[in-house]
Amino acid sequence: MNNPILLSIVESKGHPDFCALYERLSFDHQWVTSMRKALSFVKTTPPDYVVAEFFYGYGNNYAGVNISNLDVFLYSLEKYAPNAKVIALVSKAERQHAERLNDIISYHGIAQYPVYEKDMEKLLIS
Fold it and tell me: DSSP character for 78?
């Protein structure tokens, strides 16, 4: 049986490095540095898990119709990897906005910064 695929979308320096944890839990860990690359990846390799940072779209940063940086990606995920479990990394100030994305796709979990390895491990093994 193949190891589950975990896609990390790393868009900032604040994204925690859990590579050792992913390896210990036997994930096939892939990472990308932009939503564009993440969209390309899921079209060819549907992940089992996605760990991504949530950034709320204040004002019209995301064309005024989207809540955050994740909206378009989550819509694509519904099509290409509907069973993927999404874990969003979010700041305390933006957590309330992240909850709104459950209307698009149910999160497997939301981890509020600072995110510790033990917190991530709980989300990945549940």
Answer: H
